[in-house]
Amino acid sequence: MGVEYKIDDQVNYHSMKGQPATSFNHKITAIELMPNNFGEDVVWLTGKSGCVSSSHLSPFISLAAGGELNEATFEDFVSRLRYDTVGERCKEHVTADAMFIVEKKTHVSGIDLDYAEDVGVYVDDCFYESVQSFIEELESESLETLERWLAKNHDESVSDFLNESSFHHQ
To answer: Is the confidence at residue 165, as pLDDT, over 60?
Structure first.
């Protein structure tokens, strides 16, 4: 064998030796080294019927271990998000209580404030309960910059915003 494989190793299978892998992320369930009836070292894999030559395998390298992003490593990543927080593979994590967050930024407008909670202004990781409280916290230079921008970009939506927020700087 070129690479020393052992039971439970994760590997990719190449239907033609030396060509790109044709199936990915198989687990070795059994190994039979030469001399044997096959004339070469063979292994049994999950997802394959019968044995295959070990020379048609390559190590499966997950994204977590620095592998390339491809369909197989992405599927492995997603499966780890779902299942590796408990069970035997949990020991591979730095923490037993792994946490993953996937976020999507959205912009929501047109909310009727009479029917909404926790509506305010977020600027540079700071939350303001209202537009008025945000404006009151501005330094004079920032306030002047805001006023110039509002004058330059004044349209109907800005007018509505100003009227609803009681923005009146003296």
So the answer is: no
CA nearest 50: which of 65, 34, 30?
A: 30
HSE, side-chain direction, 13 A CA sphere, residue 144: 3
- How far apart are the C-alpha atoms of 88 and 83, rounded to whole Å? 10
Question: Distance of CA 101 to CAs 24, 41, 81, Å?
Answer: 26, 43, 10
Cα separation of the two ends of the chain: 82
Q: Which residues contact 13 (CB under 8 A, 6 or more apart)?
A: 21, 22, 23, 24, 26, 45, 48, 52, 56, 57
pTM attached to this predicted model: 0.43
What single DSSP character describes residue 24? E
Please write the tens of the pLDDT for every residue from 102-135.
677 666 667 776 777 666 777 777 777 777 787 7
